[in-house]
Design goal:
two-stranded antiparallel ribbon; 7 helices
């Protein structure tokens, strides 16, 4: 779902011009950035689903801290607060909300492997609608997020450059990079 997360960040950037694109891109994968060292330390794990082949959506992710509802809220708030020294409060809130959007988007694709409380405390029901059972549908949704994100970013960036009287090449270049990068990441995910 990485490509879809990046596409969503570009969509947000098209509306939030004061928040840097790099911060939105970082925010949208923040939970996974924290997940990686926990995975390497086997605090969080990945379990293949029997009978599936490839990499795209073929596992149950036991990210019981980073992808728990409360854990995601806390990690998102920490990331947003980390930029308070540099940006206005609105941009920090936007970064925190984009970080939490990762959990919301994952809710649709993950199988029921996302706990409510960190460490699955209380053994409450696990969350996830399981769209990864239909990889083609998730790939189509991710592709749509990337295309819409690149287009909205391009449209917003072009209007800013035209208003400022500067060249439009940078807006075009970044938009193309978002589109190509997103499609490439999606292709790598799907082909495993």
């Amino acid at each position: 779902m990485i490509a879809g997360h990046f596409g969503f960040a570009a969509i947000v950037k098209s509306h939030e011009r004061r928040t840097p694109l790099w911060a939105l891109m970082l925010a949208t994968v923040w939970l996974d950035i924290i997940f990686v060292p926990l995975l390497l330390e086997q605090i969080e794990t990945f379990e293949p689903v029997p009978g599936t082949h490839g990499a795209y959506g073929t596992g149950i992710i036991h990210a019981n801290y980073t992808h728990s509802l409360l854990g995601a809220l806390l990690l998102s708030a920490i990331l947003g607060a980390a930029f308070l020294w540099r940006w206005n409060q609105r941009s920090c809130i936007v970064v925190a909300l984009v970080a939490f959007s990762h959990w919301v988007l994952d809710l649709f694709v993950h199988r029921a492997d996302m706990p409510i409380l960190p460490g699955n405390a209380g053994h409450l029901p696990m969350l996830g609608f399981g769209l990864w059972r239909y990889p083609w549908a998730v790939a189509a949704a991710e592709c749509a997020l990337v295309v819409v994100g690149a287009w909205l970013y391009w449209r917003a960036a072009r209007s800013v450059t035209i208003a400022a009287g500067v060249g439009k090449r940078r807006a075009d270049l970044v938009s193309v990079l978002i589109l190509i990068g997103g499609i490439a990441v999606l292709a790598l995910d799907v082909t495993g």
